[in-house]
Amino acid sequence: MATAAARRYAEAVFELASEEGRVEDWQRQLRAITDLVSDPAVAAVLKNPTIAPSRREELIADTLEPQAANLARLLIEGGRVDEAAGILDEYEQLADEAAGRVRATVTTAVELSTDDRERLGRQLSERLGKEVRLTAAVDRRIVGGLKLQYGDHLIDASLANRLQQLRRRLADAS
After folding, report:
1. Are residues 150 and 86 in the same domain?
2. Which of 36, 67, 147, 171 satisfies CB 3.0 to 4.6 Å to 107 for a cystine?
């Protein structure tokens, strides 16, 4: 879950990117920042208060494009290096909404084949009337069936959920 600060950064960057017509470019730049700061060695340097901010900023200035370096500089100065992944996630959600895309996650007990993922993505796209970006996850605790989450919707057709419902019914009946 992204923080309120990550949301604000993402909204500001998205507004700028939209005005400039560079939504995809900024998405790549945010991904580059996230990849950079997710490296434990780099993150340790960027978060180290004993290293002068100017030295920390030099590290990223050589690695990133100028605009991305400016954003990374703001994150370093504000002590928000850990927010990079949240900013990217929020930005991607804004970009998807603007493009009329929907993000969905399907969770199953076993890994879905590529064909099954594609078929499920197509069916969901047809049902919603929008392009769906489907992510697959595996959670053996659901035993069987699947969980499908998109937007604020959750469809839980897992065997674990059905067993839990049955337990409740039996407990209520006694």
Report:
1. no
2. 147
Q: How many residues does the chain have?
A: 174
Residue 80, domain CATH: 1.10.520.20
Structural domain of 120: 101-173
For 174, counting Cβ atoms within 10 Å of its Cβ (0-12 exposed, 13-18 middle, 19+ buried), the class is: exposed
Structure tokens at 70: 């400016």
Domain boundary among 81, 96, 111: 96
Give mean pLDDT, residues 92-111.
92
Asked if residue 139 lies in contact with residue 130, where contact means CB atoms within 8 angstroms, the answer is no
Statement: residue 161 has pLDDT above 80: yes
Whole-angstrom distance, CA of residue 163 vs CA of residue 171: 12
Mean pLDDT of 25-33: 94
For residue 18, what are its two tokens? 């939209």
Q: Are residues 106 and 81 in the same domain?
A: no
Burial class of residue 26 in the structure, from the number of CB atoms within 10 Å of its CB (0-12 exposed, 13-18 middle, 19+ buried): buried
The tally of domains found in the chain comes to 2
Compute how many other C-beta atoms are within 10 angstroms of the C-beta atom of residue 145.
15
